[in-house]
Predict the 3D structure of the following.
Amino acid sequence: MNLHEVFTRFPDQQSCIDHLEAIRFKNGPYCPQCGCADPDKVRRSNLKSRVGRWNCHDCKSSFNVLSKTPLSGTHIPLPRWFAVLALMVNAKKSLSSHQIARDLGLTQPTALFMQERLRAVMASDQAGLLGGIVEADETYVGAKRRKKNKRDDFPHGGQGKSDKTPVVGAVSRGGKVVAKVANDTKAKTILNFIRSNVSPAARFVVTDESSAYHGVRGLWPHSVINHSRQYVNGPVHTNTIEGFWSLLKRAWYGSHHKYTVGRMPLFVAEAAWKYNHREDACPWDSFLNGLFA
Ligand SMILES: [Zn+2]
């Protein structure tokens, strides 16, 4: 769904409500409070806020198709939400809130609020346990390395990792990725992450030679690629997860480096969601189906 299609198909609040009701109530309307399957639609009025309102006679509540979803109670018109979603899922990397604000005539705080809300939905999308050949790795995202004054980027000394945010990830080759911001990259943290996200039946797990991955070998067949010697040894490589890291970093450095690292978990969730839905016929539909179906 591109922006033009969104504007054409969903020009007003009613058309958006109709679309979402078709998804959420495809087996008939129900009350999100009590589950009653016999609510009454409130007759259309000119008041915008009454659009798509339903009454439940069982629990005496009033609701609309957004009730009990992350968009519940929003005062932002739905055509705006639909458009922001289209811009986000169609952007190869990621769009800054400033860019979205300029494109859609929103204030930057509103654009950021909407992006973060949609990212939170993306974060709740479960990739399931990864199977097949799984690559696991960690990386650091954050402080932008400048050409001048390189020393200032690493005020704590060391290898320049201290002021960056660690992100751990695992990807099923040809399948989905799971990635999240971590407090550290200690062996225990990494192993816990891998255990929670990789199926016990995975064929084997590929990592680099870091000692943080030594615990993997007791749980899965473990293939190690020693990056000081080579990057690919037949099926033993971490190129898939490296590809995801490179997407993530280009997106971050391209448009988000001004943000605090506090926003990074949701930013990582957006990158992972896009990766996991890269082959969907229409990721825009996938998002709404995931949220409302
Ligand atoms: Zn009810």
User: Anything to note?
Assistant: The radius of gyration is 22 Å. Residues 239-255 form the longest helix (17 residues). Residues 145-161 have pLDDT under 50 and may be disordered. Residues 204 and 221 are 5 Å apart (CA to CA).
